[in-house]
Every structure is written in structure tokens, then in C-alpha cells.
Amino acid sequence: MVTLAGCSSNFGLPEAASEQAADTVQLWRLFFITAMAVGGLVAGLILWSALRYRRRSDELPKQTLFHIPLEVTYTLIPLVIVAILFASTMRATSKVNELAPDPDLVVEVTGFQWQWRFNYPEQAVDIVGELERPAELVVPVGATVRVLLTASDVIHAFYVPEFAVKRDAIPGRVTPFDMTVTRPGTFESGRCAEYCGLNHDKMSFTVRAVSRAEFDTWAAGRTGGRT
Predict the structure, then answer these.
(1) Listing from the earlier edge strand, what are the strands of the sheet with 185-192?
(2) Which of 39, 70, 120, 194 would suit a FRET pair with 103, their CA atoms being 20 to 30 Å apart?
(3) Residue 2: per-residue pLDDT
(4) Whole-number pLDDT of residue 56
(5) 3-state secondary structure of 44
(6) Are 27 and 89 a contacting pair, CB within 8 Å?
(7) Is 147:111 a contact under the CB 8 Å cutoff?
(8) DSSP assigned state of 59
(9) pTM score > 0.85 for this model?
């Protein structure tokens, strides 16, 4: 089963498949609608001015040196808009970057030229991808998954569009982040989003979201093994 990305209600973004992505999409909608409203207002004022004050004679029109109420208005409105967008961005960023005190699952993700390694320390499962057989990350739906991200050689980037997550994998540094997948499915869009060498284009991976029972069965069948 392949999860399809929808664009109609998300203004070009894939359909959110995680709690963190939902917050990101909501913020994107706010920015998009605000930009359209401001752009429409500016275009409307330009068109109105061009028609209303088009040249009708050689007589010089009335000149106004200043208009205090108007100047205060067009200064305050942009400040209010920027303040709202800033506060919304800080709120969304805080929620996306928040780490749960007790995650349901921990996965150690390591990027290397040119594939991925997914290690489940608590389940004793280790998955290593190959160029012709990309790795698959299996996670339970609704669970808080703590990803411990790093790289073994050069800088890579863990990116899944449906989860709205893109984090750099840096050698010698472990970057933790949480993701909570909200619907089951197989997401084949995982990839490295940082150019990392010759076979960068083949550095893809799949995420399969299943029920908790299915995950436990999957993990039990691979405990102690390396695939």
C-alpha cells in the first residue's frame, strides 16, 4: 500500500502523516493565506490608484505633505502581521522540537554512503540498507518514536515529506527528535536531502507504519538478527 500525497488542502504540501507534520502544515497554511491576502491588497490598491488617479489633464493634482493617521495605520498593520507570524512560528517550532520525557520507541538512525542503518536497541533489531535494497524503517502508529540521528562519514539529511521532518545527520554528533505517525501506510519518499557524493540519488528509504501488535510481531521475528 502506498500513501498518496494530497495537495488541494495543504497548498502544495504532502498530506500530513504525523503530529509534527500537522503543526507544520497548519503554520504553512497561515503563511500562505497571509501572503495571498497581503498580495491581493497591494495589487488591488495599485489597480485602484492607477484607475482613480490616472492623468485627465495637465493640471497638477492636490498635493498632500503628510497624513498622520494613514501613516500610523500602514506602519502598525505590518508590525501586527509580523508579530502574529513570529508567535505562530515559535509555537509550531516549539511543538515540533519538543522531546517526550518517556518515548514509546527508540531508533538509532545512521546515515552512511549511501544508505541507512536503523537500529532498535530495545528490540535488538538492526536493519542495514544496500544500494539496490533500501532500508525500511518500521514504526507503530500513534507511538512517540525517538530518533537518534547521526552519520558515519559525511553529512547526510533524514527527510520524509509526509512527516515534514528534515534533520541533518552529522558525523560525531547525535541529534534527537521525536515523531508520531498518525496513520498506517508505507511511505516510500524517505531520502537523504543533503548532497553526499556519487550515489546520493540512491540514498532512499521506506517508512512502514503499522499497528502496535504488528510492530511487536515484526520485531519478535527479527530479534537478534541483522537484515
Answers:
(1) 136-140, 204-210, 185-192, 156-160, 165-169
(2) 194
(3) 39
(4) 77
(5) helix
(6) yes
(7) no
(8) S
(9) no
Residue with cell string 485602484: 48
Buried b (16+ CB within 10 A) or exposed e, 106-122: bbbbbbbbbbbbbbbee
Q: How many Å from the N-terminal Cα to the C-terminal Cα in the chain?
A: 22
Contact predicate 180/18, CB 8 Å: yes
pLDDT beneath 70: ranges in the chain: 1-12, 223-227
**Residue ranges of domains in the chain, CATH in brackets:** 19-97 (1.10.287.90), 105-220 (2.60.40.420)
Calpha distance 112→151 (Å, rounded): 6
Q: Phi and psi dihedrals of 25, rounded to 5?
A: -65, -40
Q: Are 176 and 147 in contact (CB under 8 A)?
A: yes
C-alpha cell at 177: 527528535
197 is written with which cell numbers?
557524493
Q: State the Cα–Cα distance between residues 36 and 42, nearest whole angstrom.
A: 10
| All three cell numbers of 150 | 547521526
Sole residue written with cell 494530497: 6
